[in-house]
Structure formats: C-alpha cells, structure tokens
Amino acid sequence: MDVAVFSTKPYDRRFLDAAVAGRHALTYIDARLDPTTAILAGKAQVVCAFVNDAVDTAALDVFAQLGVRLVVLRSAGFNNVDLAAAKRQGILVARVPAYSPEAVSEHAVALMLSLDRHIHRAYARVRDGNFALDGLLGFNLHGRTVGIVGTGRIGLGVARIMLGFGCKVLGYDVEPSPACEAMGVVYRPLQDLLATSDIISLHCPLTRETRHLIDAAAIGVMKRGVMLINTSRGAIIDTKAVAAGLKEGRIGHLGLDVYEEEEELFFEDKSDAVIRDDVFERLLMFSNVLVTGHQGFFTVEAMTAIAETTASNIDAFERTGRPVHEVL
Ligand code: NAD
After folding, report:
1. Which domains are delineated in the chain?
2. What burial class does residue 142 get, using C-beta atoms within 10 Å of its C-beta: 0-12 exposed, 13-18 middle, 19+ buried?
3. In what residue span(s) does the D-isomer specific 2-hydroxyacid dehydrogenase catalytic domain sit (predicted)?
4. b/e for 35-55, b at 16 or more Cβ within 10 A?
5. Alpha-carbon dihedral 290, 292, 293, 294, rounded to 10 degrees
6. Which residues line ligand 1 (CB under 6 A)?
C-alpha cells in the first residue's frame, strides 16, 4: 500500500523501515498534518499520523478527496482525530493501543524521583562547581501516598513501581481495575484522592470529561506542597491554574511530559527561537518544575512496538479491509 507518514523524524524512519520491511511504499513527510499540509498525502491510500497531527474535519475532507481510506496513528491516544468526521467520510482509523506502557510509567516515576531529589538542579550545580546542599532537601517516597488518576495500562505500571517503593497507592478510575486492586491499590472517589495524596499522577485519556480535570477547584482541595505529574495529555490540567498554584506554594513540585499547547513547541529544536508562549515560559521560571517534551514513549522497546503494530494495522487492512486495532 502507499502510505504517507506525517511528522516524520529520523527515528520514525529507522523503526518503521525495519517493521514494514519493504511490504508497503512509505513516503516520509516532515510536516505536521494540518488542513494545509493534508494535500501532501498525494496518492496514498493510508495516512500515518502522530500525536500532534490534526486529523480534523478539514484534513479528513482533503483525505477523502485524495482517496485515503485509512488513518493509522502511531499512538495510543486518539483525541487529535475527529472520529465522527472520519466515519462520515468512510475513512477507518486505527491506533497502537498498547506499546510498552512501562516506557511511560517509568518516565512518570523518573519525573517524580528527579523532582523529589532535585536531580535537575543538582546536575547543574555540580557542573558549576557548587556542592552546597541548601535547597536540595527531598523527602522519602517510602510511606508516602501516591494518587493515580486513570489506572489503565500506564497507571497500573506506575502503581506497581510505587508499591515497590513502599508507598500507599490510591486509585481513581471510572472503571476500577481488579488487577490494580489485587496489587494493593485502594480506590477512592476523586476528591478524596486529591485531598490525601502527596503525589498525584495523571494517566486517564483526554476526553470531554477529563479536559481541565485539574483546575483551580481541584488544586484547592489538594494537600499543600503536593507533587503533580502529568504524562498523559496536556489539557487534562488547566495550565494557568497550575501556574497560580505553584506561585501560591499550593503545588510543591510539577512534572510534565505533556503541555496543552505543545503542538507549537514539542518535537522540534527551538533553541534559537523566541518562545512566544507566556504560560509555558512562566512554568520554566519555577525551579520546582521539570518539563520534558513528550518523550514518555521514547524507548527502544516502545518505538519497536509502535512500528510493528502500525505495520500490522496496514498489513491487515490490505488483506481484509480492516486494521487490527480499529478505533470505533
Ligand atoms: P488505558 O486505556 O489503558 O487506561 C486509561 C484509563 O483511564 C482506563 O482505565 C480508563 O477507564 C480511565 N479513564 C477514562 N476516563 C476516565 C475519567 N474520566 N476519569 C478517570 N479515569 C478515566 O490507557 P494507557 O495506555 O494507560 O494510556 C493513558 C494515557 O496516557 C493515554 O490516553 C495517552 O493520552 C497517554 N500517553 C502518553 C504517552 C507519552 O509519551 N507521554 C504515551 C502513551 C500514552
């Protein structure tokens, strides 16, 4: 099949070329997908898209005119796709439902450990010949309460690690997981979890219900000095409310791998550019904030699994007219 791969980086080529092994003709497109770049799909029957590609009504209209029949996402989340518009146009959508959830779970824990022990600050200090410990005081994770919002695949992985550290782990989910309960996760209503956790880690998908789940009111019930971690999707937190919470000292540590306006920033080298996002710049002013640029998925294991599942979605579509992991 002819496949147009949007938002391609050199690492995408490496893993996709290996997984597809010449079975399909891949055209790599550097540009991010939006209504103006959708035309670059050309004669492709399949479009391959990533997290910040806008698979919206306008892009899908262009795809329908070009004859695209399938969109395969190199991601688990599909909040960037207008599913109703895809259905209207008769374009199928597929994703990679699970590709090494441990990659993201471990990254969430990396953010927790780095923030708690100020590793990002210690790294810079020691390189500068400053060995003073003032300002680097941390706390033991052992005995602390960790609240996990969304106890699916990634949330379960975080729970497993934090239980290993000797933490008490609370969970909130619209569908509690028996596997988590069996491990020792205690389910609580969201408000209780927010009010009693020392660390809150977000692992629910971005939906209409979860958009700005963490807003000023939610921050208002949290413990003073709470650590908030978001490796899920940026818009689950209201960034302005979180910045205010940091300023007031309500939020003691903030670890983000995702940001609600990340489309304009992440995955690109902007080191020579002026970043014109005041909210983002403000966050970076706080020494108790650690931001990574959506790299939770970026391990060899996860990239291999993403590429292989994407290839299997295209293979199955070619054979049967349906991808393996269709988003319905
Ligand atoms: P999953 O589907 O296995 O788990 C999501 C869980 O959230 C489910 O148990 C579901 O019941 C729960 N949920 C749904 N709505 C909820 C709500 N309103 N309140 C509370 N819980 C709710 O998904 P996963 O594989 O664990 O991934 C979770 C999210 O992580 C994805 O949706 C994606 O946005 C994000 N993600 C980020 C990266 C990264 O690189 N940072 C990589 C992969 C996934």
Report:
1. 2-99+300-320 (3.40.50.720), 101-291 (3.40.50.720)
2. exposed
3. 3-327
4. eebbebbeebbbbbbbbbbbb
5. -120
6. 76-77, 98, 101, 104, 149-155, 172-175, 203-207, 209-210, 231-233, 257-258, 294, 296-297
Q: Decide if 209 is catalytic.
A: no
Q: Which two tokens stand for residue 302?
A: 């996860």
Q: Which stretches does DSSP call E strand in 220-308?
A: 226-230, 251-256, 289-291
pLDDT tens for each residue of 255-289: 999 999 888 889 889 999 998 999 999 999 999 99
ipTM of this model? 0.99
Residue 121 is among the residues annotated as catalytic for this protein: no
Secondary structure string (H, E, C) spanning 153-178:
HHHHHHHHHHHHCCCEEEEECCCCCH
On whether the CB atoms of residues 314 and 46 are closer than 8 A, the answer is: yes
Cα of 98 vs centre of ligand 1, distance in Å, is 10
Distances in whole angstroms, Cα of residue 258 to Cα of each of 99, 202, 236, 267: 18, 11, 10, 11
Q: Rounded CA gap, 171 and 174, in Å?
A: 10
